[in-house]
Amino acid sequence: MIPGQVPRRAQSELNEDSAGPARQIALLQLGIYSLVGGICFCIDVGGFVALRSLKLPILTASVLSFVTATLVNYLLCCGFVFRRGRFSRREEIVRLFIIALVGLGLNSVVVLLLAQILELDPKPTATKGGRAATKPPRADTWIGSIGRRR
Q1: Which distant-in-sequence residues (6+ apart) come within 8 Å of 53 by Cβ?
Q2: What are the extents of the domains in the chain?
């Protein structure tokens, strides 16, 4: 053995000891990241419901709530989860913008498809005295369309 050299057995014990704190930090980051994701999910869904109750169109409410949740997610992740980034701030923002655009597109398509499946009116309805002024579909029109081909 060369003087100053650490024996192999001691070296492997050092590696195991140093892996413990790194693993704990990674698990803590994962937990905080999950919490931030849950908070932003609530902001997205809650914002969408609140904006729809204010009679905004489905797509507008979806976009506004998604963008708000994305910005909050970015700020919380920068502040609490990932203290030091691998990229410059400018590169982070460009990457976030690109990923957020893809996510916004997917989110909007899903929201519009669900609105069609659930037969929701994507535009707000006019109100009379605080209640929606929508007429229920006429039964004879609906029943008459059953036998028709499209």
Answers
A1: none
A2: 16-124
Distance of alpha carbon 69 from alpha carbon 64, whole angstroms: 9
> Mind listing the pLDDT tens digit for each residue in 21-42?
888 888 888 899 899 999 999 9
Q: How many CB atoms lie within 10 A of CB 66?
A: 22
pLDDT, residue 149, reads 52
Q: Which two tokens stand for residue 22?
A: 């790194």
Kindly state the average pLDDT of the residues 120-142.
56
Residue pair 111/59 in contact by the 8 Å Cβ criterion: yes
Binning the chain into helix, strand and coil, the percentages to the nearest 5 are 70, 5, 25
CB under 8 Å to 78, separation ≥6 — which residues?
85
Q: Which residues contact 55 (CB under 8 A, 6 or more apart)?
A: 124, 125, 127
pLDDT higher than threshold 80 for residue 51: yes
Q: In this structure, how many other beta carbons lie within 10 angstroms of the beta carbon of residue 121?
A: 11
Cα dihedral 140→142→145→150 (10° resolution): 150
